[in-house]
Prior knowledge:
By secondary structure, the chain is an alpha/beta fold. Helices cover 33% and strands 27% of the residues. The protein has 9 helices and 15 strands. The protein has helices at residues 48-57, 71-75, 103-116, 120-130, 158-169, 191-202, 217-222, 233-236, 252-266, and strands at residues 3-7, 15-16, 32-38, 41-47, 62-65, 86-89, 94-97, 100-101, 136-142, 146-151, 173-178, 181-186, 206-210, 225-228, 244-246. The strands form 4 sheets. A 5-stranded parallel β-sheet has the order 5-1-13-14-15, sandwiched between helices. A 4-stranded antiparallel β-sheet has the order 9-10-12-11. A 3-stranded antiparallel β-sheet has the order 2-4-3. Strand 7 and strand 8 form a beta hairpin. It is globular. The model has no long low-confidence stretch (mean pLDDT 96).
Amino acid sequence: MSVLVASDLDRTLIYSAAALGLTMPDLRAPRLLCVEVYESKPLSYMTETAARLLADLGDSAVFVPTTTRTRKQYQRINLPGPASKYAICANGGHLLVDGVSDPDWHARVTARLADECASLAEVRDHLMNTADPLWVRKHRVAEDLFAYLVVERDLLPEEWVKELAVWAENRGWTVSLQGRKIYAVPKPLTKSAAVREVARRTGAELTLAAGDSLLDADLLLAADRGWRPGHGELADADWTAPAISALPERGVLAGERILREFLRAAGPAH
């Protein structure tokens, strides 16, 4: 059976130092592999065991990294195992085939956004006008598709995030708070649509998925089976669905567990 595995990356398979969640005694901490370097500094990690599991996964499934990262941010990541033929960036806005964005897919996505939701310019202006410089460190636009803020989480007012979510909802956008980033993303811009396209192209008969954030909910619902870690927006909301397994593991060990589940579901026992 042809199996497609579509997985979110950050805080699902790979982890920053701040997100590792190493709560065990130091002597029992897992060995880590650095999988991303940014400005000459190590940035993201997975356990060495997870790295081996991911390399094994390529033997039994088509592995599709599925991320909200821009193409440039994604290309910094150096995952173990063979390079993925397909990757999904910008929350579904770009479908990479052998590292190159498929122009027809991108054109279809941008046409949908123009038809179905408020413009990026309107959302960006609202963020600029309402976000307080006291707690905003950076304003960013990603791939001319969506916007996000980098914030001081301790100073961020919860009420502001709730008000932004309501404002965005009324304009066909979704708000997601992940670590120090607040994303504003058009509702038609989804990981699930891009994954369905890859499934169509590959003839996949079984789709497996994993993710931790609100922006991964549609991805998980579109899969035949899905997993979420014990941390992140979905765990905080106690979100679940019939084909979704809520795992207890938090931090980098959750990434290891997710890969074991992928391997178990994709084929022979590992």
